[in-house]
Batch of 2 targets.
Target 1
Amino acid sequence: MRVLVVEDEQKVADALKEGLETEGYDVEVRATRRDASARVEEGDVDIVLLDLMLPDGDGLDLLSEMRGNGRRTPVLVLTARDTLGDRVTGLDRGADDYLVKPFAFDELLARMRALLRRGRLLRPTRRAVSDLEMDLLTRVVTRAGQNVELTPREFAVLECLLAHEGEVVSRATLVSEVWKESARSITLDNVIDVHIARLRRKIDDPYAVKLIHTVRGVGFVVREGVP
């Protein structure tokens, strides 16, 4: 699960990142409203932990922007503003939950789990094309009913391709969504090619019908093809 922590206090941000990564979450930190807004627009965030007092604006404005743009990503507000009016305002502006600082880390985890469970009911938990199936909850991939063992990075690449089934996914998109880098490089392009080759060996080589296709000079697409 990918967590975006929007927090400008370095010590707090570092503590949240370390604690959440220990629990198995993939954590990114942004210290300003502007940077957080740009990251939210990229997508692929499962939950946002949002401080309200940011150096370049109010976190509630970011929250309103997200909801106004149709972003339904769960948002847990973490703030020192502890009056009833503050909490009501936060919830009215689109927050899913509200936790006042200082808080117990175990309570934070429990509230995150509750929001993520709720979010799963609104999001697909399975992706498939032809006889290739991916379960996003159990992280099991099968083809023709046979398990396909993938590394975490291979799983992420395949998930990205399946999320865009029938559409060409560029290397730049894979760099951004899977490797979380802002720009392509020759090294990253080579790494992507290696992962695509490995996926083909595991998913396509044993079968007559190929599913992972290269669009030369553009990128890759998953679709049912011809033998």
Note: The chain has two domains: 2-120, 126-222.
Target 2
Amino acid sequence: MRTRIALIQMRSGGDPARNLDDAEAMIREAAANGARLVLTPEVTNLVEKDTKRLFELLKSPEEDPAPVRLSDIAEANRIDILAGSLALLGPDGRAVNRAMLFGPDGGLKARYDKIHMFDVKIGAGETWSESTNYRPGERAVVADAAGLKLGLSICYDVRFAYLYRALAKAGAEAIAVPSAFTRPTGRAHWEVLLRARAIETGSFILAPAQGGAHEDGRKTWGHSMVVGPWGEIIAALDHDQPGILYAEIDPAEARKARERIPALAGDREFEGP
């Protein structure tokens, strides 16, 4: 059975209320156009690289208005919504980068905290140290969403193939990769990594993205994409502007891909080098 999905591409800034307004408008439009599952990008509610200002704006999951509002939108439109991630204040005083899946009844179906922290030196003076402010997650998550078994991941996770293999072996037919890729890494690696994860696992890859020049000076790649389990690009945006990407996917295609190449069943023990 085919499922109509929508990926929301955003350009979030430092005003959480405005970001939520932007997200809600596009989610409601997607629902009106028949989407049963709508996915938003990484840090939907707040993009702010200045540490002082970030922590002035962060709220706990119980105090932040985003989870309640997204829950209400899901219930009002009778759809599943994956908040690709929200920047929230964790219990230890550090931030958490958290995906939250809301069902058509408004209930929280699942949550996932980003496991792999973006600590890199890209070059040309661009350095990122996500672990300075964010606490990494410790648990992989698969949940039911609009008739799909959906694996959860966030952005930099896509470089760690073992996570995607674990999600697929746990039953995921589609894997979400909400992201805020930098322009240099997006230009070089975005499509290649998404297609590789799809091929390796025989899964649909659903990758809503942040895009464009943000208020804090960050520049993200955009180019939201849906990749099929054979590695084919089903739908993609060719720009970094805010927008909605639609696709229809059938979980049976994931099963067919895994039957053709049963790599998930081919693990073998081996000695290290």
Note: Helices lie at 16-32, 51-57, 65-77, 161-169, 183-201, 251-260.
